[in-house]
UniProtKB/TrEMBL annotation:
GO MF, one annotated term: transmembrane transporter activity
Domain of life: Bacteria
Subunit structure comment from the entry: The complex comprises the extracytoplasmic solute receptor protein and the two transmembrane proteins.
InterPro entries per the UniProt record, alphabetical: DctM (IPR010656), TRAP_DctM (IPR004681)
Location of the protein in the cell: Cell inner membrane
Organism: Zobellella taiwanensis
Name of the protein described by the UniProt record: TRAP transporter large permease protein
């Protein structure tokens, strides 16, 4: 049954069907093996049940908050602060690219939006300062992976809804891995800047200039503390935190006279478009997830891993390999929805902390955004840098390798993931 479903999915994707339809057709193929009479009852029930979860309302709210920040010009203030902090160093624009991604991650959480926003501004500037087009585009795509790791994260909300894991713990657990990923790309940029003999971009900024940039970016910098702090300390739920963030960003934009009603409406339309696509994929994936659970595929998967269940690191490495390969050929949300219910029993049997598993899967799924042939960030980076997609495919692999190295470190040292949640009374 599983092989038939996999073949059906690949065939229908290659035929160009919308992803959620390909998933639904795949589910129907699976039901034909189990009980065709269940199709009319279980497909609609699981399709709507998969998205009828209150915590998932946080997803469109966080997307809207990020869109409003872009419309209100707050993201530009974050980039200005990043330029003041590191722009004067050798290879400064590369550092600006990474630091801006860290700032964006705390208010947007979308790698694709990060690649588009930063790439259109920084890639042309980096080319003028001597960076190769391939490196500038690759660094933009690579550093955008920080977005879904540092909270808020759509992937983490989905994982939490599937596993009943605390969203607050996951958000806290993503902070250090996200910063570690940023540090890794900054080290990579350090070596590149010296190998390419890039010039020093400018003079060290004065204290007055730094203070001006900090004050300008302060409204945007407060948003992550509203999001994470409210959830972690139990003041608000993730959904309420998203609504509060939207209200805060909208108020700041309107008071600063940067957010017009037309821009507000455009942000709403873009949020509705993106949310609709995500929820359709989630709903269709939920049907397949239920079907696989009904067929006891997760239990069979645990049996396959039985010989190595005493070695949690090895289990995580194998699960990561499966996720990495799957992510290369499947859309990220659907991959997360399908793999998590199968992986969770295996990880629990091996004694892996669910928060640790969540970060490992999230980073794995995120890396898929820059891996050929399906990585969305690769296509966006190629478009904004006017680089041939084949050339982009060739040049992206060093950045994939850096991200995989960070993933390996997180697998080998769980304390990097679990320390912050444990410190604040969450996951141990």
């Amino acid at each position: 049954m599983t092989l038939a479903m996999f073949a059906s999915f690949i065939i229908h994707v290659l035929l160009g069907l919308p992803l959620f339809i390909a998933l639904l057709v795949t589910a129907v193929v699976g039901f034909m093996f189990i009980d065709p009479a269940m199709i009319g009852r279980m497909v609609p029930q699981q399709f709507f049940g998969g998205i009828n979860v209150f915590s998932l309302m946080a997803i469109p709210l966080f997307i809207l908050a990020g869109n409003l920040m872009n419309s209100a010009g707050l993201t530009q203030q974050l980039m200005t602060l990043a330029r003041v902090l590191v722009g004067h160093l050798r290879g400064g624009l590369g550092y600006v690219n990474v630091v801006s991604s860290v700032f964006f991650a705390g208010v947007n959480g979308s790698a694709v939006a990060d690649t588009s926003a930063l790439g259109s501004l920084l890639v042309p500037a980096m080319k003028k300062e001597g960076y190769s087009t391939a490196y500038a585009a690759g660094l933009t795509a690579g550093s955008s992976l920080i977005g879904p790791i540092i909270p808020p994260s759509i992937f983490m909300i989905l994982y939490a809804s599937l596993t009943n894991t605390s969203v607050g713990d996951l958000f806290l657990a993503g902070v250090i891995p996200g910063l570690l990923l940023g540090l890794a790309f900054m080290i990579m940029n350090w070596f590149y800047a010296r190998k390419a003999q890039l010039p020093v971009s400018g003079q060290r900024p004065s204290a007055a200039l730094f203070l001006q940039a900090l004050l300008g970016a302060l409204p945007a910098l407060l948003a992550p503390f509203i999001i994470v702090g409210g959830i972690v300390f139990g003041v608000v739920t993730p959904t309420e935190s998203g609504a509060l963030t939207v209200a805060y960003v909208a108020l700041v934009g309107l008071l600063g006279r940067q957010l017009s009603w037309s821009r507000f409406w455009s942000a709403l339309v873009e949020t509705a478009r993106l949310t609709s696509a995500i929820f359709l994929i989630m709903a269709a994936s939920a049907v397949i997830s239920w079907l696989l659970s009904y067929a006891q595929v997760p239990k069979a998967f645990v049996v396959l891993f039985d010989p190595i269940l005493e070695h949690p690191v090895l289990v995580l490495l194998l699960l990561s390999l499966i996720t990495f390969v799957t992510g290369m050929f499947m859309e990220e949300v659907s991959a997360l929805m399908l793999l998590t219910p199968i992986f969770m029993p295996v990880a629990m049997a091996a004694g892996v902390d669910p928060v640790h598993l969540g970060i490992v899967i999230t980073l794995n799924i995120t890396i898929a955004l820059i891996t050929p042939p399906m990585g969305a960030c690769v296509f966006v980076a190629a478009a904004v840098s006017k680089l041939e997609i084949t050339e982009m495919f060739k040049s992206i692999w060093p950045f994939v390798a850096v991200a995989l190295l960070v993933l390996l470190i997180l697998v080998l040292f769980p304390s990097l993931v679990l320390w912050l949640p444990a410190l604040l009374g969450g996951a141990a």
